[in-house]
């Protein structure tokens, strides 16, 4: 709809003229028709464009975009939290009665995966929902969270600004047969971070989130980032209302390992400190950063490209490390190739992710977070190495 002498959300004739003038090399207008439907009001139809997407390519060139997590009830609404160029977007996806609604179908699959506690399927469906949200909201995201070259600030300089960014709330909706995101109002957000329960008698250093510099985000469930503390590289894991139990378990496992006389010989990241929020409570942990370019599951060229002797060495190292953990009463609980880092300098295997749960194909659900589950994972990883 175009209305003369009226402001947004309609377009004025002046805006239309600028649009046509600026379209030039980026978009080609094939045809359009204007019909008078009332005084000073016209209906614009048949407006076709051929988009070369130069603007999109420019914006996506330096784009930082990922799903930070989701909250909701099985069978009900889910809120997906997205971080886009230092801004936070919370998009609500609700079940509908329309059997052809793509969002409804994906949400049903997501609920089923959550009910089954199938981590791999949860990730697969979440990726599909992420794609749908991205395509529906890309233009809005680009407007509210422009890239660095379009006037936005550089990557957050400290952890606090990364954890508490400016936040916008939307809901996914079908408008005119198209999936769109529609902005909505929401009450002031409550503290989304959990408080880590720390055992007395262990004096690990504590650092304010404002004094921790974020280097880059790392792959994994929840908030995981490479950070710098007083010039030293570390791995930071922050607990949320969704993933708090995973961080609590990881802390407890790493602390048991730290108490061992053989802690330095166990190839797992060492606990080195805590992250403290503005309220004085501990909201996350700091671990030794393991320099790596890839995981065992994502070796360059594929696992078949790795020499046979190297694969044998990795198999032995993984088995030895799991045995050491079990001697301390610690279950890895994250057994799969993607949770094995290959150290850049030594080419050794390091086990990571003590948050628990299980992954289909590597550990059976009934064996999750147990020594038996770890042993099953080791057998499957050795089969994967195929030496």
List the helices and strands and how they pair.
Blueprint lengths: L1 E2 L9 H11 L3 E3 L3 E6 L2 E5 L3 E3 L2 H8 L3 E8 L5 E7 L2 E7 L8 H15 L2 H26 L14 H5 L3 E9 L2 E6 L22 E3 L4 E5 L5 E7 L2 E7 L5 H15 L12 E6 L5 E7 L3 E4 L12 H20 L12 E4 L5 E3 L19 H15 L2
Parallel strand pairs: 8-9, 11-15
Antiparallel strand pairs: 1-4, 2-5, 3-4, 6-7, 7-8, 9-10, 12-13, 13-14, 14-16, 15-16, 17-18, 18-19
Helix pairs in contact: 3-4, 7-8
Structure, described:
This protein is α+β, with helices and mostly antiparallel strands and 387 residues long. It has four domains: 2-52, no CATH class; 55-183, no CATH class; 206-288, Phosphorylase Kinase, domain 1 (2-Layer Sandwich), CATH 3.30.200; 294-385, Orthogonal Bundle (Transferase(Phosphotransferase), domain 1), CATH 1.10.510.10. It is built from eight helices and 19 strands. It has helices at residues 13-23, 54-61, 102-116, 119-144, 159-163, 244-258, 308-327, 371-385, and strands spanning 2-3, 27-29, 33-38, 41-45, 49-51, 65-72, 78-84, 87-93, 167-175, 178-183, 206-208, 213-217, 223-229, 232-238, 271-276, 282-288, 292-295, 340-343, 349-351. The strands form five sheets. It has a six-stranded mixed beta sheet. The chain has a five-stranded mixed beta sheet with strand order 6-7-8-9-10. A three-stranded antiparallel beta sheet has the order 1-4-3, with no helix packed on it. Strand 12 and strand 13 form a beta hairpin. Helix 3 (102-116) crosses helix 4 (119-144) and helix 7 runs antiparallel to helix 8 (371-385). The protein is globular and about 65 Å long. It starts with a strand and ends with a helix. Mean pLDDT is 82; it is low at 1-52.
């Amino acid at each position: 709809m175009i209305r003369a002498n009226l402001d947004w959300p309609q377009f004025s004739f002046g805006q239309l003229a600028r649009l046509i003038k600026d379209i030039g090399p980026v978009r080609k207008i094939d045809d359009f028709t204007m019909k008078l439907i009332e005084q000073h009001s016209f209906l614009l139809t048949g407006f076709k464009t051929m988009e070369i997407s130069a603007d999109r390519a420019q914006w996506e060139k330096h784009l930082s975009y990922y799903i930070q997590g989701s909250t909701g009830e099985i069978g009900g609404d889910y809120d997906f939290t997205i971080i886009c160029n230092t801004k936070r977007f919370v998009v609500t996806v609700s079940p509908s009665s329309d059997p052809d609604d793509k969002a409804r179908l994906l949400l049903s699959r997501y609920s089923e995966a959550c009910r089954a506690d199938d981590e791999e399927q949860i990730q697969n469906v979440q990726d599909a929902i992420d794609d749908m949200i991205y395509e529906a909201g890309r233009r809005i995201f680009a407007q509210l969270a422009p890239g660095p070259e379009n006037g936005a600030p550089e990557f957050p300089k400290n952890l606090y600004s990364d954890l508490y960014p400016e936040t916008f709330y939307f809901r996914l909706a079908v408008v005119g047969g198209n999936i769109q995101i529609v902005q909505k109002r929401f009450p002031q957000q409550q503290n989304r971070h959990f408080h880590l329960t720390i055992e007395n008698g262990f004096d690990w250093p504590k650092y304010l989130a404002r004094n921790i510099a974020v280097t880059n985000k790392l792959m994994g469930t929840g908030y995981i980032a490479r950070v710098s503390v007083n010039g030293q590289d570390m791995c930071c894991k922050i607990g949320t209302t969704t993933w708090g139990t995973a961080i609590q378990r990881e802390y407890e496992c790493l602390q048991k390992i730290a108490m061992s006389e053989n802690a330095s010989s166990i190839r797992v990241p060492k606990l080195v400190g805590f992250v403290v929020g503005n309220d004085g409570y501990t909201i996350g942990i700091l671990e030794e950063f393991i320099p790596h370019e890839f995981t065992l599951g994502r070796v360059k060229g594929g696992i078949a490209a790795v020499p046979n002797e190297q694969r044998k060495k990795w198999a032995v190292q993984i088995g030895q490390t799991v045995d050491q953990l079990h001697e301390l009463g610690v279950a890895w609980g994250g057994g799969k190739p993607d949770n094995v880092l290959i150290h850049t300098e030594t080419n050794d295997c390091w086990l990571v992710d003590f948050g628990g749960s299980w992954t289909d194909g590597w550990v059976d659900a009934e064996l999750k977070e147990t020594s038996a589950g770890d042993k099953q994972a080791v057998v499957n990883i050795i089969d994967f190495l195929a030496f």
